[in-house]
Design brief:
The structure holds two protein chains of two kinds. Chain A is 43% helix and 21% strand. By secondary structure, chain A is of the alpha/beta class. Chain A has one domain: Response regulator (Rossmann fold). In chain A, strands 2-1-3-4-5 form a five-stranded parallel beta sheet, sandwiched between helices. In chain A, helix 3 links the parallel strand 3 and strand 4. The two termini of chain A are 14 Å apart. By secondary structure, chain B is of the alpha+beta class. Chain B has five domains: 125 residues, Four Helix Bundle (Hemerythrin (Met), subunit A); 131 residues, Alpha-Beta Plaits, CATH 3.30.70; 58 residues, Helix Hairpins (Orthogonal Bundle); 180 residues, Histidine kinase-like ATPase, C-terminal domain (Heat Shock Protein 90), CATH 3.30.565; 145 residues, CheA-289, Domain 4 (OB fold (Dihydrolipoamide Acetyltransferase, E2P), Beta Barrel). In chain B, strand 12 and strand 13 form a beta hairpin. Classes of the chains: A alpha/beta, B alpha+beta. At the A-B interface, helix 1, strand 2 and helix 5 of A face helix 1, helix 2 and helix 6 of B.
Amino acid sequence: MSKIALTVDDSKTIREMVSFTLKNEGFEVIEAEDGQHAISVLGGREVNLIITDLNMPNMDGLELIRNLRSNPSYKFTPILMLTTEGDATKKQQGKDAGATGWIVKPFNPEKLIQVVNKVAA
Amino acid sequence: MDELQRFKDTYITECFELLEDMEEKLLNLDQGSPDNEDLNAIFRCAHSIKGGSGAFGFDRITAFTHILEELLDAMREGELSPTREVTDALLQSVDIVRQMVVAAQSGQEATEGIEDSVANQLKQVVGGDSESASPKEEIVEEESDEISIFSIDFRPKEGLLISGNEPTLIINELKTLGILECVVDIEKLPTISKLNPEKCYLDWFFTLETEKTIDDVKEVFEFVEDECHLDIEKIAGFAKMVPTAEKAESNEEKIQEAEDKSSDDSKVQAPNTNVVEPLKAVDDTAKVPVVTSIRVDIDKVDRLVNMVGELVITQAMIAAQSSDISFEEHPRLVQGINTLSQHTRELQEAVMAVRMQPVKSVFSRMPRMVRDLSTQLKKDIRLEMSGEATELDRTVIEQLSDPLTHMIRNSVDHGIDTPENREASGKPAQGVIKLSAEHAGGKILLKISDDGRGVDRERVLQKAKDKGLVASDAELSNHEIDNLIFMPGFSTAEVVSNISGRGVGMDVVKRNIEALGGTINIINKPGEGSTFLVNLPLTLAILDGMIVRVGREKYIIPIGSIIETLRPKNDEVRKIADANDLINVRGDFVSILYLHKVFSIQGAEKNPSKALVVLVESGMDKFGLVVDELIGQQQVVIKSLEENSDAVPGISAATILGDGKVALILDISKLQELMGSVENEKHESVA
């Protein structure tokens, strides 16, 4: 059974890169453009990993994380957020919201795989 | 690196979209009370551009957008207001980033220093202390030249699992760093009845022998450092050459033990999770939802459109060939042919719809232009747009940009006056240009109107006379005068400014529009403003045409140009020497053109009262085309002639009819010019 990952980002470039990298790692990947879209494409189904951007229209990453964590299906789902270099406040806000970890931009496939292995091997 | 290139293309396309978006939002920004959602959106644009730039090593884009991002962040936090100066600087930045992206697209660097002055200005606005983008802090994985042994005391808090972290995975990662030895403390583990599977009860104590540094080890625990008690201590270090085989071996054994233990321990939790929350049947076959849109190369769509065009022709051919097959004899075949024709039409519509785009992509360039021009000309102009969502074929959209830009420029430059002059003539200081698009009867109607001066008829007429475009004693109706501006060689700009005076006049606009199969008209109210009405077909690929016969040739007249068809009585035809004949249509005299003369066809009916006259209109003028017979109305697929031959006067394109024969599509506006030239030549020869 292949593992399912969800990538949430308003930038198509990032979504494509995350998606490509994860597919190479054997994940099946769902894409969503923002928090609201993420919740609707998930539709309550369990996934093995969620990678989300923070700055997004409609529903931002923090709200998405809070929203997911309040749902029993995603209580323990590893959620990684994409942040810009060394933004400590954002990291903390993300952790408080329930994020599992973070990946620092700029995006780099090796780094992504390394972090993914840490939370969803 | 094929993959990287693909992502780069996506990134570049996305950048252009984001920049356009950013520009539009900046232009609409209310300086007094900016909308927070707009500021957020603008910020996100800069943020996304920066986000991707790093991945491709576009460092200058990263550095520059970083400054933008900081400024926009301050703005959305309300620390900074979007004054005109700041907005202007941001708009300039959009242009600069666009240049950088364009350069990046072709694998080049943008011109050195184009961003410097704006960057400095923005930095000053932000508060001067912002450094240019701190270069990505790459985690330097420099291996130390010695082997260290660390003791790691890892005591997770009970809630560690809630954040989605998993100790087993952390331990796995630790194992990748070197040789790991592990002791588990199960002291806190309650009896099974009291065990809460959502909590973490185990503590670990590791010894790690590794070439990595203490920072590398800490990084393993990066995500959980707040959720555990963690003590990492270096207890020993060796020179790299020292480790002996014997030592490694003994450790190997230990790690094996430790691994067994740790995996046993992690199993303690797993089954329990299942007890409380029975494994939800994860349906393997559950479909992952697909994204609802995809990006397709435009060439592929064009190819599809062409193929469907061929299919439509083939279908028409089959229909024509099979028209005499009787239903009684071959019911299935006839039925099948009917269904085929229906499906072909639906397929064609569906494929055409793929190529439809909202006009927004053209409209959206206009606000910026109006803003820049009006600043330059010290005018105060508001651009109001509506109907941006109206869709038409992208081939039309692409070619719409130039004429539209020109008309708007004209309105800004000539139409709308300076605020002082406007107030003097009792108008509000701020001029308004309206741009709208709407569907009207299978066509699209664009309106470009301004509340400016309108066209000064006296001046236009004088100028046309001066230039010899009309006879000096000619009496022209208002309507005719207004249409003079579309004549080649006429340009209303008295002084060639760097705005309208680009060597393009309204005649070029008219030609462009007509090349698209459209028409352009002006409604002029001197003193109150003018309105240009542009009618365009929705697509350039198919045409509703009337097939007519002249002699043994068939021609297509675009249905949109046809007003009516009639057979004049003998006494309604006036032969005029040295000019086109006229026919009397309910009291109006209309010139007629004999198609058999234009195209030199033998054996056609020469007497209009025995043939048919198709009344057509071009612009605001109408005239008649004499043909032998109307064959029928049909949708035809337009095949460009220019790929295979030179342009033919009076012919816009060709099509293939159901019987496999080629028919030429008439170019009504060119025919009208042709008629004019015949007329003029004759006038001249008389004079």
